[in-house]
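Objective 1b of the project was to move from sequence-level analysis to a structural picture of ligand recognition. The entry below was assembled by the postdoctoral researcher (A.K.) and checked by the PI before modelling. It contains the amino acid sequence of the target and the SMILES of the bound compound, asparagine.
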Amino acid sequence: SPVSFGQLIPRQDVQSPINTSLPNVTIFATGGTIASKGNSNTQTVGYQVGLGVQDLVEAVPEILNISNINGYQISNVGSGSINETISLKLAHMINEELAKPEISGVVVTHGTDTLEETAFFLEATVNSTKPVVCVGAMRPATALSADGPLNLLQSVTLAASPAGRNRGIMITLNDRIGSAFYTTKNNANTLDTFFSTEAGQLGIFINQVPYFFFAPVEPVGRVVFNVTHVQDLAQVDIIYAHQDMNPMLFNSSVSSGAKGIVLAGVGAGGMSSKANAAAEAVYNATGMPIVASHRSNDGFVPASDEDFTIASGFYNPQKARILLQLALTAGYEYNEIKETFAASYPMP
Ligand SMILES: NC(=O)C[C@H](N)C(=O)O
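Corresponding predicted holo structure:
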């Protein structure tokens, strides 16, 4: 049964007697489909979150042949309900955990809907060369051919593996190893929903062994913020562009406390001329950063000298929002924010 949130589940409780010849991996569980139960083995929508970290580990006893496991239950929610309190707690606890010499790596179990946001948040706040692997599932634990158990086994394998070092935060699902910087959920329902943008996958699991296509690499422009003493983040809203969009959304966002705005723009960061005029008026009145990203699944928004917006470059709206929150919280000035975004696409 789930323990209270943030509580350590000691090794003996997850039936993992310490085997000193094995590496040590810590699992931080947050909820999601990987921790969900349906009413029957054919139910793959409308199921409920309800399994704790202990249940997840007990479902895959083979994990304990690979690694000693400690577990922390951080939350137990669908990932649409993950918030900055949870992601800051994860960042704080993961930094502390990875600083312990005996820990090889960590796994975060998470719903897939917003997994890329938490993974990117960790990419920008965890300072360690050790592997951090974020994993989810598309079918609940009770379903026929549930994908969670093998995904979990692979994620622990990777977190325990020296091959997983110096690769930033990784996302594993459906045999693939992706970089948190570039991986995005692409389909609301299918097992192969996570794939990386043009930047490509990092590697693949073959017979549960992680194989990397590249030597350790860092995404260009990666910034790591120190959030040790941060308890809350600056409010940044995302405004979704579409035909006939409401230009007043920019003003509403400001009056509800936003310190920055990300536009999920049409094409490469666009919006209607009326919305553009309203956004520019907000920028002129407040000086707040408005970052133009794209509503298309993949793409790039180039910088323009004439524009009042900051180009998101390769960051999609949800990742641009996290980067902007962190930059604002760290007290970055407008130009530093602009440079932080531009650092991901250095001009030749
Ligand atoms: N596949 C999933 O994990 C979806 C689930 N709704 C979530 O918590 O994000």
